[in-house]
Amino acid sequence: xxxxxxxxxxxxxxxxxxxxxxxxxxxxxxxxxxxxxxxxxxxxxxxxxxxxxxxxxxxxxxxxxxxxxxxxxxxxxxxxxxxxxxxxxxxxxxxxxxxxxxxxxxxxxxxxxxxxxxxxxxxxxxxxxxxxxxxxxxxxxxxxxxxxxxxxxxxxxxxxxxxxxxxxxxxxxxxxxxxxxxxxxxxxxxxxxxxxxxxxxxxxxxxxxxxxxxxxxxxxxxxxxxxxxxxxxxxxxxxxxxx
Length: 243
Ligand code: 3SL
Description:
By secondary structure, the protein is an alpha/beta fold. Helices cover 40% and strands 19% of the residues.
């Protein structure tokens, strides 16, 4: 297995495709997707723009539909929810399809949607993602951070580092075997430095600060947890993820 890390969707090469592509948006899209599926959502359908989300969701039975729209950290008018993992419970999300569009996370998924295997990762699902990789053993893996509007995100990089470190720990392989690019090695160093202070790191991260400014400290606490969900959201048809 060769692992490549791209910090933003913009860094993803125009040519070629990996055997497995992993979208990461710790704050908060991929943490929210995992929380929704763990709460029993039927599936998550992702959109780059709100107009297509509203148009497609209008064709779905209303009682089985939840619209989640986020821009700039806030809920989009006309949607039922914003992008908080804490919004999801069995009562609210069970059996429903989540139609979702966020500033960066869903854009990241759209960028990699044509890879043969597409999954999402978050700190909450880190070990499940490592086990998924070990079970499927894809030859090439692209881990793609969602970043913020084209720039690097600390929290996505530390999550990529946590996944890569997990693969190293489980296989005993070295960077020589596993690292496809320099960014993978740097991400593991970041993870090793911060693994016991994940919440502190979220507070220092620029998007963490943006979310704190919007009164979302509980979301930071939730998203900073490691290995609390044993699920891997996986794309089953282009733009639609489930378990
Ligand atoms: O950018 C995104 O996709 C979101 O996760 C951003 S936010 O955490 O909802 O503000």
